[in-house]
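Action item from last week, closing it out:
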Amino acid sequence: MDDTLLLLTVAAVALVVGLAAGWAVQSAAVRRRLARERSFFGLPEGSECVLVTHRDSSSAQWSIPRHDALALLGLAAVIENCGAHPEVAPHDTGLQGFGARTEFCVGDPTAHRRLAAHLASLLPGVAVHPGDESGTGRGTFAIGGSSYRVEPGAVEYVLLARLTAREGGRPVFLAAGQRPVTHRAAVRHLVRNRARLARKHGADGQFCLLLKVVNSQAYGPDVVELVADVTKAATTAAESKGHRAAS
């Protein structure tokens, strides 16, 4: 074998070994990323989860409001990637307690029974104003001494939370908003930032974030700002006192 052929053979072998090593490293990274995602969402391969949403009051049939349906579609890709099996359930049907399977609860807490129950038991520091007889003030959040009022189409708030009832239990994710477009915005924020949220709060950590949807009349659910991490205030029972209005 002359020197040129020997060099070509060595180079080919080195290339094959390098490609195999690169593939192995990339595959291991993909597996680790998927494992972290499954842990964060509480969705081991083959597990079950439930997505709880409103019924569309304008339809005679059991259907889901448009923005909520689009929010659930955003979650569907994550669930499929984790190899889990979803069930969609209306908020006003009897469901088992939480912790046995991951739950995604999306909607308006003044009308969504399951979501309202989760807020009361898991986020006692959050109060949601039901509104007066004319509907004024409906959906206003009161958290940690501050109030956050909706300005339809201009400024709207939504709570995005990951909570667990007990150690080892599956998480419940809440997207509790003042208007339907905010539910979709919160789910987008969760899906797009899942890796960062998992790093910051831990695969088993709890959090409650207050998000602001800006100018949804023009931009829909696309412009979202993080107002604050309100985990401590939201998970602590609120004291009985007046609230400061948010600017």
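Closing note: The longest strand covers residues 155-163.
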